[in-house]
Amino acid sequence: MSNYISNLKGFKYPDSELIRYFFKNHLNIKPQKVLELGCNNGNNLALFASYDYEVTGVELDAQNVENANFNFSNVYGFDKFNFINQDMREFCKNTKDLKSDVLLIPNVINYITKSDFIKLLENIIQNKLIKSNSNFFIRARSLKDHRYGLGKQIDDGVFILDGDEYSGEKGIICSCYKEYELVEILKSKLNLRDFTLITSENLNVKSGVYIKDSDIIIYGKIN
Predict the structure, then answer these.
(1) In whole angstroms, what is the distance from residue 15 CA to residue 140 CA?
(2) Which of 1, 89, 109, 210 is surrounded by the most beta carbons within 10 Å?
(3) The CATH number of the domain where 102 resides is what?
(4) What is the pLDDT of residues 152-184, one digit of tens each?
(5) Is residue 167 part of a domain?
(6) HSE-up of 5 (CA within 13 Å, CB side)?
(7) Which pLDDT belongs to residue 164?
(8) What is the DSSP letter of 104?
(9) Considering its fold, how many domains does the chain have in total?
(10) Model confidence over 21-45: pLDDT tens digits?
């Protein structure tokens, strides 16, 4: 097992809350199609692929996509996967009729504006990227996060991080959400229902500085 794990390029394990969601909702019973926006190196999708899902991952960073293809082909030996090196906003705008049974959006809407997020959700529905009654998982940054307020405010809860020297995100967008705000957006645009909302807080140490990560996690049914 140690050699198997060490051969993986990039992240080694799925998000712990996504693992809980996967088994709590019995997604291991009936393999289907899953779409992840902001899939990094496929670490989350590897869980689904292990249960014979057809997986599609969209990722902006070319190196992450290269790592994902390597891991799925050469380490895991999966064959039903497609990793796409593209901005998720463009993907949702230009792709049609994917009709996935599961939609994952973990830890990625932090890096786009709220108006872009809303448009992305509208495109998901308009272009039929998901089926009706799909399963859904999202993880987003809350107002309690260390990065909130560290920069120039460009919208409600949205900043350009010019005051963050420690998390490696200086100069990029940071969008933070209130719990009810995120729920209302998802209800309005995806018809979110039968959902669970939890919060997750974690302390990381970088360059001797404690950084508090604070996330909102929602999973349920959509569309």
Answers:
(1) 13
(2) 109
(3) 3.40.50.150
(4) 999 999 999 986 666 678 889 999 999 999 999
(5) no
(6) 6
(7) 64
(8) E
(9) 1
(10) 999 999 999 889 999 999 999 999 9
